Amino acid sequence: MAEIELNERHEILSGEQQESESHKISRRKFLVTGSATGLTLGFALSAGARRAQALAGGIAGPPANTQVNSWLNITSGGAITLTIGSSEMGEGSYTGLAVILSEDLMVDFTKIKTVHGVPAIGAAKIGNTVVTAGSTVTWTNYWNLRNAASAAREMLVSAAMNIIGDQNRGNYTVANGVITYTPNGTEISYGLVANAAALLPVPANPPLIPDSEFRYIGKTQNRLDIPSKVNGTAIYGMDVRLPNTLYAVIQHAPAFGSVLSGSVPATPAGMTAVVPLQVLAGIGRGTEQTGMVNAVAVVGPTTWDAWQAALNLNVSWTTPANASQLNDAVFLSQAQSALTTNTPYSASGPNTAPTLYQVEGNAAAAASAIAGANKQFSAQYILPYVAHNPLENLCCTVNYVPGVSIDVYAPTQGASLIPPIAASLTGLSLNQINVHVTQLGGGLGRKYEADFVSQAIQVAVAVKQPVVVMWPREQFFMRDQYRPLSLVQVEAGLDSSGNILGWSATNVNASILGQRGIPLGAAGDSQSTEGTTTLPYTRGSISTQWISHPSPIPVGFWRSVGMSVNTFAVESAIDELASLAGQDPLQYRLNMCTDPRWTGVLNAVATLANYSAGPPSGHFFGMAAEKYANSYCALIADVSLTNATDYEGFPTLFTVNNVYVALDCYLAVNPGQINAQLAGGMVHGLNAALYGQQSFVNGVPQFQNFYNNRVIRIYEMPQVFTTVIPSPAQSNQSTLIGGVGELGVPCIAPAVANAYFRASGKRIRQLPFFPGVKMGGINNPKVP
Amino acid sequence: MATNYTLNVNGQNYNVTVNNPTMPLLWVIRDLINLTGTKYGCGIGICGACTVLVNGVAKQTCILPVENAVGTTITTIEGLSPTSTHPAQVAWVANQVPQCGYCQSGQLMTVAGALNAGLHGANIVPQIKNVCICGTYDRILQAVDTL
Predict the structure, then answer these.
(1) Model's pTM, two decimal places?
(2) Within 13 Å, how many C-alpha atoms sit on residue A507's CB side?
(3) How far apart are CA A705 and CA A776, in angstroms?
(4) CB count, 10 Å around CB of B94?
(5) Which of A204, A332, A389, A467 is deepest in the core (most CB within 10 A)?
(6) What pLDDT, in 10s, does the model give residues A73-123?
(7) How many angstroms separate the CA atoms of B84 and B108, rounded?
């Protein structure tokens, strides 16, 4: 079944790619193809997300619509397909896109099939920028989709008008994909005029329907992908089955920086091959440099056979030269010393870590204001390396036919990265390379990286047979590109009324963009500084700095990235200052905010939690707020102290009972999914806050499976209440629509720390709250 | 040493040849029988993504040797209902539970096992130890409440 669906996609796309088709590019950069496949409108969706822009060294904001990367196809049979370049990783975005498209197209959204395009590069017509990151899929595409839908609708109506012979548009209505000629009730379906519409000019300014006529936007809609996710038919990265499939398991060197020593081990009995795997150019991070052989794949008849053979394989790995430097204590002491011993950024200099970047304000002025204030505050917040660990491990299926074709089936957030890799490894030309994006069993930022895909292609090139390639869970924990270890120093000075006269925040961590070879300007790495910059609070004289950390442990984009690090520090510090000022933490924040959308979410979450009445007896509130991806979010955690042991028999300090979240994303497309994303993001943040850490001994990661990097089970799930600020009666394109997918993550850690402080008087400034707490098996609660 | 087994999965008998009788049932189901709805998550019996019913009882197949499953009746997510209308599936859709969906086969099989044992509503919850990284637990609780 999987193959059928994937092949269908391919046929849809290859149909558009025929050279014989005539193409017209309108002033609005829609591209029309006329053929027997009906009306196909090509347009640009900004899948080039903020993260991708950051990777390209650009600035935040919606990308320009310069390249066609998406297609709306209406066949003569009436089938409607939207082919796009972003991935579905569980956030419901494909359903949201169908909902948006359906309004101006005036069709039932459940009749729209949304599929992922086969990406190509350069001037190719399909799927140019294909990156899914930064909570961007819905909001960046909203207006482009609506304009495309309106253009298609008017072209279809024009074609119908030609058939009827009456060019008075006012005599036609459209509903559910049927055009009605009102003078005599003649009905013409979209399918009937789809081919003719393709020959018509694209209207320059097709009217959008008013928001008051929305049938779906703003109302909770069922997700289109859920039926396939309750009966086992959804296809993920290692679910593709092709004739003569082999299975491979990846085994890395145990330490970062270690490589294969000596020759490749002989192929064990019963196995097909042992394949040495290189770090390819542009893929290695930190210790992993281009050309290093840092892993082998064992290929066999089943995943299990290959895995057992890999575990028993006698491989020699080198000890990295700098192994003694790859230790937790070293990383932390490097961060501490970088605070005082660093080199200021120089436009001409090499800017070797530790380099100090002055991101906002003036350090001397802030220091002077703090020193001259009535009360001084200084605190350090420390966050560990944290792995991503979506439940689907890294995996990829490849079918390589030498000299003919390669098909890559990958659960990827970065499909556009794959064709060049496949081309360089196979020598095939781009039109022989097909990338099929499967369902993602969670991405969380890790599946943007192409390391696992590049390995799978190397294996396929070696065995020349279809192969399903998998990383065992232990490999995933041990070869992550972690959320960076971070030390954030906050200093502030208060006047006698508690007003902040001076504020200084300095974050020390490894550069995500720097590890990807992206030159950093004077403002440093946006992925490290987001969450410390453009804060809404009036703080007198401010200084925001970032210092690059020299650690070569690979770091990467972890759902909400710098926000989850810095929001913990900033919102903890603001709460500490409220306490120092003797003020209520909500009122303290409100007094320092002038942006009505910030105060709006703060007041909304307070109402939701009934803050003025206070929590139930024995419970304590803690709050935090953030602005991210053009959305505003505020969160209150309700925490009570416990002396009990948890269900695994480990002691606990507190229970998170309830979580209240308010979001302002300007326009809410699918409120039910916003609720799901806020709750789910909160859980991701809570897992990291309570238990998340990776630790290193001589470059070897110590936490290797869930048993010692615990995540919450259902018993630890707080009750979650969400509220979304109502959308405007009539939205406009001048206000940016906000993202949702990562917004639930950053606030939970500081909110819980703040609530715990209210409850206990103790301030937690280092994560995780419960380092080293373990998790047992389902039927064996005492797994070591 | 290659060993032949006959397994009854979703009402059908499958003859499989395994290289080692300790091979976990998960990999037999996925790689030899090609039913891919049952997932690998942790491999050590913690996450429950690999849960199926063995004689109606929820079991983690990533740590269940295939030899121990011979002679049993095995039900995977694909065999839960020919029309995807098992009460748990209906409740999952009604409550819009899945996000990425990867853990949900295992969640559903766990709940199906609890229903088989005569449990309902809140009494099912203690049986659910399956991990969901997306954090769909609140909706699972809502869905289970209706069962």
Answers:
(1) 0.91
(2) 31
(3) 11
(4) 12
(5) A467
(6) 888 888 998 887 656 656 667 788 889 999 999 999 999 988 876 544 332
(7) 11
Across the interface, whether the CB atoms of A230 and B38 are under 8 A apart is answered: no
A777 and B44 in contact by Cβ < 8 A?
yes
Which residue in A710, A770, A252 sits closest to A478, CA to CA? A252
Contacts of B128 in chain A (CB under 8 A): 713-714
Give A-chain residues touching B139 at CB under 8 angstroms. 676, 679
Q: In sequence order, which residues have a C-beta less than 8 Å from that of residue A237 and are 6 or more positions away?
A: A392, A394, A395, A396, A397, A409, A410, A411, A438, A440, A441
The two three-digit tokens of residue A310, written as one number: 């890999």
Question: Are the CB atoms for A571 and A624 separated by under 8 Å?
Answer: yes
Q: Closest CB to B134: pick one of A90, A226, A235.
A: A90
- The second-level CATH assignment, the architecture, of B87-145 is Orthogonal Bundle (1.10)
- Bigger pLDDT: A2 or A358? A358
A560, part of any domain: no
pLDDT tens, position by position, A125-154:
222 233 444 455 566 678 888 988 999 999
Subunit contact A683:B134, Cβ cutoff 8 A: yes
Nearest by Cα to B105 from B43, B35, B46: B35
- In this structure, the answer to whether residues A592 and A466 fall within a common structural domain is no
Fold held by B3-79: Ubiquitin-like (UB roll) (3.10.20)
Q: How far is B28 from chain A (nearest CA, A)?
A: 8
- What are φ and ψ of residue A321, in 5° steps? -60, -35
CATH of the domain at A311: 3.30.365.10
Question: Do A645 and A699 reside in the same domain of the chain?
Answer: yes
3 state SS of B52: strand
Cβ <8 Å between A681 and B135: yes
* Residue numbers of the domain that contains A661: 584-784
Angstrom distance (rounded) from CA A400 to CA A412: 18
ipTM above 0.90, yes or no: yes
Nearest CA in chain B to A92: B99
Q: Is residue A340 part of a domain?
A: no
- Shortest CA distance to A329 belongs to which of A551, A565, A556, A555? A551
* A217 shares its domain with A254: no
